[in-house]
Every structure is written in structure tokens, then in C-alpha cells.
Amino acid sequence: MKRIIVIGSPGAGKSTFSRELSRRLGLPLYHLDSLYWKPGWVERSSEEWAAIHEGVLAQPTWVVDGNYGSTLHLRVAAADTVIWLDLPRTLCLYRCLKRVVRHWGRTRPDMGAGCPERLDIDFLKYVWRFKRNGRAKIFTCLLKYGDDKVVYRLSARRRIRKFLDQVSEESGGDARTNAASSD
């Protein structure tokens, strides 16, 4: 595992999971939200986003968290490992609401600078509908570009914890050394 993408519904815990996985494996971490959004919740131009995205994927090792459907196929194609956090939508929605309360008016560490947390009803609707709409896009992308990838679909919190524990065990306590030397 040297080039890992973490995908799933908003609120599934992608950023938290990615931070921990990055730490355990000693790999650089890229949060797509922090790269995509300019201050004030301004979207980057297509050209600007493509250049930033390509720059990340050109790196030899990484953990990248986020969906961004228009470029998901590029990440799947470049990755060696796909980790799909596929948790129940009620849990994801709850976590999104909890995140709003916890970070209200402040910028989260995984978000672009100058993008304070806010309540966005359209976003919450997107989270609620993700199982119906987003999952199909993920399946299609994985079928088309993921044949030679190792794909983990983690659908329960205990499975996520077990996965991270196994990563720690396999790394023998020194993830940086083992991640650099194993292939």
C-alpha cells in the first residue's frame, strides 16, 4: 500500500481514517477538500483543479481522501489500493451534523483555508441520498478502472478499527520503515 485512496459518503470518517492510516504507514496525506476549495468556499477553476490534482497523483506515495466524482477515475487508475468506507447513511448524516456543531464558524483541519464550517441543507440532502446516487458511481468507476487494485469495502466501525489494527500489526510498529521497504 503506497498509493491509497479513501472514498465514501460525507460523514463516513474518510478524513479521520486517512489521517490515522497516513500516520501508521508514514505516507503523505492529501485531503481533496483542502485542495479544491479556495477561501470563502470558492471553487477552483477546472484548469487549476486539474493541475493540483495531477500534481498530487504524480507523487510516488500518498493517501488521498475524498470523492470528487469528476476526477475519481483518475485516482482509481493511479492508486494501488482503494478503501471504501461504506457506512449507514443515518450514521453519516449524524456525523455531519455533529461536525457542524463541533466546528461551527471555524475551518476544519481537512478543509481549505478560509472555509468555515456551516450548515448547508443541500449538502445534508446529498449525504442522505449518497447511498442511492453516489454508490452507483463508485461501483461503476471501480468496475471500469479498478481491476488491478486492492479494494477494501469497510461497512462497519468495528471493521474499520480492525483494518487499522491490522495495518499496525503488519507494519510491526514501525510503519515508516516497513512502508518504505515492503513491496
Characterize the structure shown:
The structure is a single chain. With 183 residues, this protein is of the alpha/beta class. The protein has one domain: P-loop containing nucleotide triphosphate hydrolases (Rossmann fold), CATH 3.40.50. 55% of the residues lie in helices and 15% in strands. It is built from eight helices and seven strands. It has helices at residues 14-25, 32-36, 46-57, 69-78, 89-103, 121-145, 157-170, 175-181; strands at residues 3-8, 29-31, 37-38, 42-43, 62-65, 81-85, 150-154. Strands 2-5-1-6-7 form a five-stranded parallel β-sheet, sandwiched between helices. A two-stranded antiparallel ribbon has the order 3-4. Helix 1 (14-25) packs parallel to helix 7, helix 4 runs parallel beside helix 6 (121-145) and helix 5 (89-103) packs across helix 6. The relative contact order is 0.20. Mean pLDDT is 89; it is low at 173-183.
Strand content: 5-15%
Question: Count of helices?
Answer: 8
Which CATH architecture is right? 3-Layer(aba) Sandwich
H/E element order: EHEHEEHEHEHHEHH
Shape, principal axes of CA atoms: globular
CATH domain fold name: Rossmann fold
User: Mean of the pLDDT scores?
Assistant: 89
Structural class: alpha/beta
Count the E strands. 7
Protein name: DNA topology modulation protein
InterPro entries: Cytidylate_Kinase-2, P-loop_NTPase
In a nutshell, what does this entry contain?
InterPro entries: Cytidylate_Kinase-2 (IPR052922), P-loop_NTPase (IPR027417). By secondary structure, the chain is α/β, with parallel strands linked by helices.
